[in-house]
């Protein structure tokens, strides 16, 4: 199979008259004149598809990732940009090409499901690094993304337990008026050790010192974090996230554990907890918070699961996590249920494969959860490959996007300034609801037609 891939790569490179050299098993360097790059871009790096069509032993289909650097004055600088672009392509799940010029990225491909490539060795190494950072910290501040969901809150709670085991002061930053996970927070606050742990950004900013370690969970984009002021004030930052890499990401961290092959950030924290002192002492409610995060991001173990996901769930069950209690955390009131039902009933089908629903009524307190659940339900409609739910809040249009895997909703949401995964993504877009809806449909249609070619 490697020989067949090698032949396709050399055929692809031959028209440029450039140099393509295998320097390590499965790794190539390709140097060619910039004038040939527009042609590769115009064909959207068709070599990705040609390699994927190769069939190996057992019916396996190989994929490649390409990183290209351009616009530099030296080979060394261009190679560094190419290295960064390749790292970005791999961080987004692979099977794609990334072109970097200056600080700007362009992406092509990314149509296939990401293949599991992480190892437990990496988890142990990251656990040791995080353990050292926790030991050195005077206090720890933890926060997730804006409108923190069950995964962001669950992962934050899991990390907080590791901090508490070291008897270090810890706070979790949360905006209670914006989070759809308020029920989960109240569930955790039943534990006496969590009195005063959840604080708003203003209080959290006052607790930043030169010895503070800031841990950001479930996002790596500085535009999405709960508090930019806290981020800018912290001298030492750790990022733990599972979303596919975006062009804009938090840099200069003390540690970044970015694992796009994980189902959720809660799953990553579960693995870390098994190798860090204090992880096994997790309370029942804390284990339920982590399990709720996994349940949310996998849609009850339906999407983006691997054997590691079930291992994490098994670990949490051993710690006492009750699946019935977790299910109760996702319960909604009658008004919210009616809202979800109306959203699904009002679904408009675009070319049969795209389902779009818009909410223009009164916003429910848990609108984020309702939109995500409605998008999940809409995938059950015959012929639908991707679903989108839109609603306006605080001057922005929020979009929840879901896919069965044929269409990559991450690519669609990135076109609107958002991100996520192949089957689960979202965005917050400034503008009028109707205008954003039209923009979304145009982008989704274009992506659908590209896939159907």
UniProtKB/TrEMBL annotation:
Its EC number is 3.1.4.-. Gene3D superfamilies: 3.10.310.30, inorganic pyrophosphatase (n-terminal core). It is an enzyme of class 3 (hydrolase). Keywords: Hydrolase. The keyword Chloroplast does not apply. GO terms for molecular function: hydrolase activity; nucleic acid binding. Residues 370-442 form the DHHA1 domain. Residues 139-294 form the DDH domain. This is Cyclic-di-AMP phosphodiesterase GdpP. The gene is gdpP_5.
């Amino acid at each position: 199979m490697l020989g067949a891939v090698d032949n396709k790569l050399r055929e692809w490179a031959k028209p440029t008259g450039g140099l393509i050299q295998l320097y390590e098993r499965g790794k190539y360097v390709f140097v060619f004149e910039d004038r040939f790059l527009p042609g590769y871009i115009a064909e959207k790096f068709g070599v990705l598809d040609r390699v994927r069509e190769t069939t190996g032993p057992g019916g396996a289909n190989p994929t490649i990732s390409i990183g290209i650097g351009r616009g530099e004055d030296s080979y060394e600088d261009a190679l560094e940009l190419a290295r960064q672009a390749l790292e970005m392509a791999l961080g987004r799940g692979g099977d794609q090409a990334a072109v970097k010029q200056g600080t700007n990225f362009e992406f092509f491909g990314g149509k296939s499901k990401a293949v599991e490539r992480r190892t437990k060795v990496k988890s142990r190494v990251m656990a040791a690094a995080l353990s050292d950072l926790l030991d050195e910290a005077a206090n720890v501040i933890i926060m997730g993304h804006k409108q923190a969901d069950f995964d962001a809150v669950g992962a934050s709670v899991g990390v907080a337990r590791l901090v508490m085991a070291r008897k270090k002061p810890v706070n979790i930053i949360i905006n209670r008026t914006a989070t759809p996970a308020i029920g989960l927070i109240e569930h955790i606050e039943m534990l006496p050790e969590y009195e005063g742990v959840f604080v708003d950004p203003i209080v959290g900013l006052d607790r930043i010192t030169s010895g503070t370690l800031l841990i950001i969970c479930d996002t790596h984009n500085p535009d999405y974090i709960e508090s930019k002021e806290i981020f800018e004030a912290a001298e030492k930052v750790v990022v733990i996230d599972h979303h596919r890499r975006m062009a804009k990401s938090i840099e200069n961290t003390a540690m970044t554990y970015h694992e796009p092959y994980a189902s959720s950030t809660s799953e990553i924290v579960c693995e870390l907890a098994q190798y860090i002192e204090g992880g096994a002492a997790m309370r029942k409610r804390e284990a339920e918070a982590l399990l709720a995060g996994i349940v949310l991001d996998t849609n009850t173990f339906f999407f983006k699961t691997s054997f590691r996901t079930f291992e994490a769930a098994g670990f949490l069950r051993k710690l006492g996590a009750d699946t019935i209690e977790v299910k109760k955390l996702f319960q909604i009131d009658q008004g919210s249920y009616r809202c979800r039902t109306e959203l699904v009933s009002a679904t408009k089908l675009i070319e049969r494969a795209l389902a779009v629903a818009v909410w223009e009524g009164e916003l429910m307190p848990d609108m984020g959860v309702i939109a995500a659940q409605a998008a999940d339900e809409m995938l059950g409609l015959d012929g639908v490959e991707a679903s989108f739910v839109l609603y306006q809040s605080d001057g922005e249009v929020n979009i929840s996007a879901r896919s069965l895997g044929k269409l990559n909703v991450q690519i669609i949401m990135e076109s609107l300034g958002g991100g996520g995964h192949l089957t689960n993504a979202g965005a917050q877009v400034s503008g009028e609801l109707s205008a954003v809806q039209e923009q979304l449909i145009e982008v989704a249609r274009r992506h659908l037609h590209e896939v159907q070619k």
